[in-house]
Amino acid sequence: MHRKHALGVAKAKKAVDKVAKHIRERFEIDAEWNRNTLEFSRSGVEGEIAVTVDSVSVHADISWLLLPIKSAIEQEISRYLDQEFGS
Questions:
Q1: Going by DSSP bridges, is the β-strand pair 37-42/30-34 parallel, antiparallel, or unpaired?
Q2: What is the predicted pLDDT for the residue at 3?
Q3: Which of 23, 35, 30, 34 is nearest to 46 (CA)?
Q4: Spatial separation of the C-alpha atoms in residues 80 and 15, rounded to whole Å
Q5: How far apart are CA 75 and CA 32, in angstroms?
Q6: Which of 17, 42, 39 is nearest to 27 (CA)?
Q7: DSSP 8-state class, residue 64
Q8: Mean predicted confidence (pLDDT) in 4-17
Q9: What is the pLDDT of residues 34-77, one digit of tens each?
Q10: Residue 39 CA to chain centroid, in angstroms?
């Protein structure tokens, strides 16, 4: 998933923190910043949300064991990205 924005890095990272908070609560995912990339994981899922000056990109690897909730995870991330950055 990819979203353009005009927030700059600092404000975009704050918006990503909001997205991560919701995802953490819903799916019990751990997340930690590594410079401008929020790395997240839980058993069977790992990925990152990379923030640049004008875009946000999400990449996630979901194991076959969690395929039944893959769609739910993607929908939640997309919904919160739309909320914070627009569609």
A1: antiparallel
A2: 92
A3: 30
A4: 9
A5: 21
A6: 42
A7: G
A8: 93
A9: 999 999 998 888 999 999 999 999 998 888 888 888 888 788 88
A10: 9
Q: Which of 49, 45, 61, 52 is nearest to 7 (CA)?
A: 52
Provide φ and ψ at 52, rounded to 5°. -120, 180
Question: Taking Cα atoms as reference points, which of 42, 50, 41 lies closest to residue 16?
Answer: 50
**Averaged over 6-29, what is the pLDDT?**
88
Q: Which amino acid is at 11?
A: K
Pairing of strands 55-62, 37-42: unpaired
The two structure tokens encoding residue 10: 């600092």
Structure tokens at 42: 């839980």
d(CA 79, CA 17): 14
